Structure prediction request, 165 residues.
Amino acid sequence: MPILDPHSMEFFSRSAEQTRRVGMRLGGLLKIGDVVCLIGELGSGKTTLVQGIAAGWGSLDPVSSPTYVLVNVYRQLDEKRLYHLDAYRLGSALEAIDLDLDFMLATGPLVVEWAERVQEALPDERLKVTLAYIDDVRRNLTFSAQGRRSEEMLKALRQQLWSKT
Prediction:
């Protein structure tokens, strides 16, 4: 087990619902230009976490994995957008750039599944979430912040998850 640095946090989820609730907390923190990179094998809980992120952000749209369409766009009532990119089928970072990442980042937060496949196309400022399958219901989520804004999000998430109030 690696020892985490001050820029990281580990969370053990005991159910899909708990993973969604963690996602809801994170989603409520997102602002335009924020990038959340999700890394994990098939079945590790990435889409479940995104369901929570979208709900916490304020989307009423149903969340599904955008594997075949590449990008899903979720909207709030005021037309703000949250982008959900699935990089599994992309062959390179250039293919991600061709999807107009700059526009997405200028108009909403971006959540990227399989982010390790296109990391060269993503901004250096990002919150990375590595999800690991433990068993049929439990998952290990490791959050790692890169940059000032991601540090702020991680600090706020840590406070929400472990505050006694």
Observations:
- The longest strand covers residues 126-133.
- The chain has a mean pLDDT of 90.
- The longest helix spans residues 148-162.
- The chain has five helices and seven strands.
